[in-house]
Amino acid sequence: MSSEMESIPACQVGDEDDSAKRLLRANPGLVRDDPGLLAELGLRLDDANVIDFGPLALSRVNAAHKRESSARLRLEGVARANFGAQSKTHAAVVDLLAARDNTQLAHQVAVLARAHFELSAGVLALEGPDHVPAGWRVMAKGQVDLVLGPGNITLVGQAPTALGLFGGRARSIGSVALVRLSMWTPQRSGVIAFGSADPRAFTVDMGVDLLIFLAKVVERTAERWPAA
């Protein structure tokens, strides 16, 4: 059947459509007087003998409206979440800039993780072992690449190799977000790390723009003072 249809010229199909339209205009009773056909088309006759949308057609319109409303609500929810995340990030930046030294900077990261983002922990870590500011986690030389992967800027999701950064809280961490830090001259490598008890709080498909922004603020702020 499909091969026969494909062989019909387009002009012939158009002519047949025109013929069908002329037939229906000349004989409206073919549709109007056939209840079965009206039902299949989702139409019905009202009391004024005018074709009206029937239950099937109305249900289709209603379903389309529900889909549109659902999509709009999802977009509004995403917009509110993005606005909320930006507002919290801006407040966190103000707190970071208020630090008076690198020790207080690490303290501010820990506080804002809980106060602004409702996370379990926030830490700063630096490859050492020498000249690591008080309050910062000490990482072995080359450990940043081992945790993030060589050349990678971020690590988001479940990462067992990063749990040691959270010290005594490690067992309660379900998901993490890490961003590479590069500071001072000569360059020192480190990370800013956030941890949540919720395994779904940080996922591999989430956006990291705000996390990277916070990391840049930490880098610029830390460079006000020497590493130790």
Describe this entry's structure for a reader.
48% of the residues lie in helices and 17% in strands. With 228 residues, the protein is of the alpha+beta class. Strand 6 and strand 7 (188-196) form a beta hairpin. The model is unreliable at 1-6 and 47-51 (pLDDT under 50). The protein has a domain at 100-222: Beta-Lactamase. The protein has 8 helices and 7 strands.
List the helices and strands and how they pair.
Elements: H1 2-6, H2 10-26, H3 29-32, H4 35-40, E1 43-45, E2 51-53, H5 55-97, H6 102-115, E3 121-127, E4 137-139, H7 143-148, E5 154-157, E6 175-183, E7 188-196, H8 209-222
Parallel strand pairs: 3-4
Antiparallel strand pairs: 1-2, 3-7, 5-6, 6-7
CATH topology of the domain at 100-222: Beta-Lactamase
The helix-strand sequence is HHHHEEHHEEHEEEH
- What Rg, in angstroms, do the CA atoms define? 32 Å
* Distinct helical segment count: 8
Mean pLDDT: 82
Distance between the termini: 82 Å
Number of strands: 7
